[in-house]
Task: inverse folding
């Protein structure tokens, strides 16, 4: 049973005519008729009732039509995936990312990705930056995108810098720290810090990531940190790109601390021996271009 025979049977059943099917697929009437007859011979059943120029499905022909359509679609999908492979396009990709970039950006990126690579399946998991490297190392994901660690980088992994993200230590406008003309580290320690939380690989426990204050609320995502800060729960250090509007509207104040503003590298984490296909390269290029535009 050849796929082209199945496809000719499908077209003939749709058009109700061997001649019309031949015109539609740009083949001769003899070719189409011979292909369907060969399919019937192999299956040992009559699929079509022929009457002059008209045809009708037999009972078994109608019974297998849907299966033939599924088979044709599956064959098309197999060809497409093999063609992708020949052109270096991944058939599937597993991604971990943090939320240092806006959700609206990721939504748009995924939409454009599927438009460009419609046959690539993609699974995305959001995790705090400290968990990204271990997810790549443990082969939970193929690649991770997020804020890159300044130290303690795993030797088996590549950390590729795609750009810089400005981090800001901020508080809600009515917070006591916002009213101070000069904020010292000792002042930061007095007030509740909204810190980042992550699962420590060695202990398996939930930990705050490098809090300055011993009085903290640790949350898993920057979006949560931002919202808790906006609610006045405490001060926090978050990506500036996530608080642009409240900063412009004066709802949030940059703390007058010497280290209230800094730049942190954002990029990809991948194993040294991992093959970077066209999809990975495209995503990284889009993020790199976005970070360049966002920094100006």
Result:
């Amino acid at each position: 049973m050849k796929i082209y025979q199945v496809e000719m049977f499908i077209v003939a059943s749709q058009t109700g005519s061997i001649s019309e099917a031949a015109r539609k697929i740009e083949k001769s009437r003899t070719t189409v008729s011979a292909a369907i007859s060969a399919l019937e011979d192999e299956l040992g059943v009559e699929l079509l009732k022929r009457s002059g120029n008209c045809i009708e499905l037999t009972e078994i022909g109608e019974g297998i039509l849907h299966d033939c359509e599924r088979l044709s679609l599956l064959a098309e999908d197999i060809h497409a995936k093999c063609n992708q492979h020949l052109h270096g396009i991944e058939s599937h990709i597993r991604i971990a990312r943090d939320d240092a970039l806006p959700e609206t950006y990721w939504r748009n990126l995924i939409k454009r990705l599927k438009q460009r690579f419609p046959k690539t399946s993609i699974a995305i998991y959001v995790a705090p930056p400290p968990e990204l490297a271990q997810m790549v190392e443990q082969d939970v994901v193929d690649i991770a995108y997020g804020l890159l660690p300044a130290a303690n980088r795993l030797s088996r992994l590549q950390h590729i810098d795609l750009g810089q993200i400005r981090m800001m230590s901020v508080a809600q406008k009515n917070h006591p720290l916002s009213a101070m003309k000069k904020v010292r580290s000792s002042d930061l320690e007095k007030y509740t810090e909204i810190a980042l939380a992550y699962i420590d690989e060695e202990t398996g426990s939930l930990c705050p990531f490098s809090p300055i204050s011993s009085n903290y609320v640790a949350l898993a995502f920057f979006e949560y940190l931002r919202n808790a800060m906006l609610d006045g729960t405490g001060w926090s250090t978050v990506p500036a790109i996530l608080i642009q509007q409240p900063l412009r509207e004066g709802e949030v104040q940059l703390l007058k601390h010497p280290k209230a503003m800094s730049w942190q590298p954002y990029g990809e984490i991948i194993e040294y021996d991992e093959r970077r296909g066209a999809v990975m390269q495209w995503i990284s290029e889009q993020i790199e271009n976005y970070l360049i535009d966002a920094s100006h």
About this structure: The first strand starts at residue 48 and ends at 51. The chain has a mean pLDDT of 92. The two ends are 61 Å apart (CA to CA). DSSP finds eleven helices and twelve strands in the chain.
